[in-house]
Amino acid sequence: MQKVIQTHAKAADIFCRDESRVDWHSKALWVLREKRDRAASSLPEWETLRALGSQIKLHTLNQLPGYLEAFEAKCLSQGVKVHWAKDGAEHNRIVHDILSRHGVKKLVKSKSMLTEECHLNPFLEGKGIEVIDTDLGERIIQLNHQPPSHIVVPAIHMKKEEVGDLFHEKLGTPKGESDPTRLTRAARAHLREQFLSADAAMTGVNMAVASEGAVIVCTNEGNADMGANLPKLQLHSMGIDKIVPDLDSAAVLLRMLARNATGQPITTYSSLYRTPKPGGEMHVIIVDNGRSAMMRDKLLGEALKCIRCGGCLNTCPVYRRSGGYSYGHTIPGPIGIAVGADEDDTHSSPWACTLCGSCSFVCPTKVPLDKIIFHRRRLYAERKSLPYGKSGYMPLVGRFMASPLLLDTGMAAARIALKILPHSLLKPMSGAWGKYRELPAAPGSSFEGWVKKNRPELLVKSKGEK
Amino acid sequence: MKIALFTPCLVNQMMPEVAIATLSLLEKLGHQVIFPQGQTCCGQPMTNSGCFNEAKNTTLKLLNAFKGVECDAIVCPAASCLVAAKENFHEFDKSPEAQAVIDKLYELTEFLHDVAPVTQFNRPVAKKLSLQLSCHGIRMLDLAAPSEYMGPRYNKMEALLSRIDGVEICYPERLDECCGFGGTFSVDEGAVSAKMGKDKAQAHANTGADYVVGFDPSCLMHLDGTIRRRQLPIETRHLAQILNDAL
Ligand code: SF4
């Protein structure tokens, strides 16, 4: 899909025009948040787990080179081939090299946001390799020529009727069919053919266990296993941040991953792969793609604690009302802003946030998302690339607010204006505020004015005040 | 106690009734209240936009108004301004005098619940109140346990209000979802902000309460504008106003 360059606000404005769709989208995701609350509250040790999860990830990130090397050594000793890619382009080249060496014509892939980030599909398709996403949601949007709009439920923006129309066109299901069970059955039959005819399989990695040289892949549909177990050749792509020290630490994160994503106690299939099958090959591609650069900023680096449960998207009141495509980068929502804001050419995504902080509290590894988003804004301001005309008006606001005299006379004028001007005159002036809300009723005087008049004995002048 | 009132610009300029109620309530509780002159904005509109340079002068002006003022506590009836003031003072001035000011800063609910606890009110208020749990107050000032958090439950605003005879307390659906004000978010992201405000105002109205009550004037102003635009059968009140009526 072509990249659309528009600010988050503009994209959100368009999304918001269909209010019933916004309500439906917001509700569908809120249901996940509610399920998450029930699942999390069923574990009395939930907050302890979160603290532990955060420590595990921080510890590993702080000693990343050591753990990555240990992981590689273990992999090699078990006959797994390991590749290192500094960016998406190198990752794609490595994948293509492996595939072309084996003459692969069709690759089945199981959900991986990393391959989305590297834009692997179009790259391979350009080289004549057919790529089939096998996660049901991923397959739906692939057929619809769209990127994921959510990291866990990638087709959440589509209603079942729309999926029915799409399947009718692409898979030949009966016209008007919108029953999820029957549609899923049709998709399953279609995917089975793909699994059986694929020459190689590729998966993302939820965790890579250093002590075992094993990768853990979690799916609810078993599609990663269907893929990886059939053909001789299997590939696994992982970001450098996916490493965990051992199985115990993986277990801590696994207890939270599915609970925080969909409210399930655990993902239906959590599979460990650590050796190639007899006569086959297993490759692990370890990708940096900007991650180590992010780690140079201590706060931004904390975003790498993320285990991609999607909980922060589900709880985010802005994401739920603006949809995944409004963010201008691969990963939407709070974590998307934290890790992907640099991809957004309009610089507006860090402002797609009220800084309510719900995401930081929902996060199983305590990624300080609101602090990171706040920090992103400051980085943009320092680079003088603020959106929405802020570079122009913020200095004026700064001067206005810093001067009690200006503030006082300005606000007095505003109060008078609010009182005497007809609202129809004021509304255009007050822009987005007055478009959607009534203007505040104006009081007669400021509190300070009131004190001066009624309680002057309360006034004190500070020593600091010059 | 001797209390210096901190009234952020929004309260000072647009909602003086909140400051007057705060003053009156603190005096009824037997505190001595003073009002340091020269207060201005906490710098939040600028720092929230990333513009720290632009925020500096404003923030230091406000800090200066409190430096060296003799008092036991500095109390503010606006949660998000208080959080911003604390953080910004710290950002721009690391001196011991600044720290002395920071150490005395309290949000009103926090002050009445933790510092100088009010255990009893003497006048009944026969109203149904739908509580507005504003984000900065609950998630940054610990005024209540946020719904995402699975540790012990607490809610300081509810604890205070439930000590008033006759009051009935209720919550909107999605009780602590953000109302969508978010400072300049309300103008930068007009459509989403308006939709969030609409959903929140409607959820409060659906409870059948007389008032939406909260500790953050900016959220209340946003909700009030939405409520009046949609002519919903509910009004907004600041916590200080309800508590003042009960004393
Ligand atoms: S930042 Fe936290 S809540 Fe969001 S997807 Fe990552 S782990 Fe989940």
Could you give a short description of this structure?
The complex is a heterodimer of chains A (466) and B (247). Chain A is of the alpha/beta class.
Structure description:
The complex is a heterodimer of chains A (466) and B (247). Chain A is of the alpha/beta class and 466 residues long. Chain A has three domains: 21-134 and 199-293, 3-Layer(aba) Sandwich (Rossmann fold), CATH 3.40.50; 310-383, no CATH class; 403-459, no CATH class. Helices cover 53% and strands 11% of the residues of chain A. Chain A contains 24 helices and eleven strands. Chain A has helices at residues 8-16, 19-41, 46-62, 64-77, 88-101, 113-117, 120-126, 136-143, 160-171, 180-197, 223-229, 247-262, 291-295, 298-301, 311-315, 317-322, 333-340, 358-362, 369-382, 390-402, 404-420, 423-429, 431-436, 447-454; strands at 81-85, 106-109, 130-133, 200-203, 207-209, 214-219, 233-239, 243-244, 269-273, 281-287, 459-460. Chain A has a six-stranded parallel sheet with strand order 1-10-7-4-2-3, sandwiched between helices. In chain A, strands 8-5-6-9 form a four-stranded mixed sheet. In chain A, β5 (207-209) and β6 (214-219) form a beta hairpin. The model of chain A has no long low-confidence stretch (mean pLDDT 91). Chain B is α/β, with parallel strands linked by helices and 247 residues long. Chain B has two domains: 2-115, Rossmann fold (3-Layer(aba) Sandwich), CATH 3.40.50; 128-245. In chain B, 50% of the residues lie in helices and 13% in strands. Chain B has helices at residues 9-14, 16-28, 44-47, 52-66, 79-92, 96-104, 108-115, 135-140, 156-161, 185-188, 190-206, 217-230, 239-245; strands spanning 2-5, 32-36, 73-76, 105-107, 128-132, 168-170, 211-214, 235-238. In chain B, the strands form two sheets. In chain B, strands 2-1-3-4 form a four-stranded parallel sheet, sandwiched between helices. In chain B, α2 (16-28) packs across α13, α4 packs across α5 (79-92) and α11 (190-206) packs across α12 (217-230). Chain B is globular, with a radius of gyration of 17 Å. Chain B starts with a strand and ends with a helix. In chain B, 62% of the residues are buried. The mean pLDDT of chain B is 95. At the A-B interface, α1, α2, α16, α18 and α19 of A face α1, α2, β2, α4 and α8 of B. The structure holds iron/sulfur cluster. The site of iron/sulfur cluster has 14 residues of chain A, from α15.
